[in-house]
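INTERNAL AUDIT FORM
Audit reference: QA-55
Scope: verify that the stored structure record matches its stored sequence.
Auditor: D.O.
Record contents follow.
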Amino acid sequence: MYAFTYSHKGKTYEVDSKGFLLDFDSWDENFAEGMAPEAKILHGLMKDHWDVIYSIRIGYKEFGRCPLVYETCKVNSLRVGDLERLFPTGYMRGACKLAGITSKVGHLGLPYQPTSKPENMSFMESYNKTYEVDVRGFLINPEQWDEYYAIYRAYEMKMHGGKLNDKHWQIIRFLRESYEKNHRVPTVYKTCKENQIDIEELEWLFPDGYHRGAVKIAGLRI
């Protein structure tokens, strides 16, 4: 992902090709004020604009993701027409952009970062990677798997908010290491036994099931 620069009132920011801020923490009100005309807000940011912008930033910090448009409307007691009036270029391309949410991180926040960086790939670069899957969404070639694949799958499945904790990664790595060693997916019994968890804990970790949850996220098929 190539970085570009945007300057306003003597301060420079790194942005992507569409003007989205690359570093959430580099945001300040100056950025939002400078970008407002790009979002077709021509007469400056008013209190209602700032209320939305700050609610998005607070929600992102609290939950690790950009709040859904429904959530932002509810928190700010807005109807869709009100939001359109405030941010005519749209929710993501208007409100979220001015709040410093990137076009990609708006979908996947910081808690979705992998434990390592596969193929020396950045998070932004990973967003453009493609994987070959079957009609059910299972990875066809297990060798294509990387941690980003697991992260995107977990998010897509809305699994615990899409967040993978240490226990999730333990199961995922066990499945992959076992497959690489034995060329077959271990049974659910073996997975529970080897990882010292019961079926109830496995169900809590992977609500969609062992096969459609754990095995799929690990990039494997039975």
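Auditor finding: record pair retrieved intact. The two ends are 35 Å apart (CA to CA).
Action required: none
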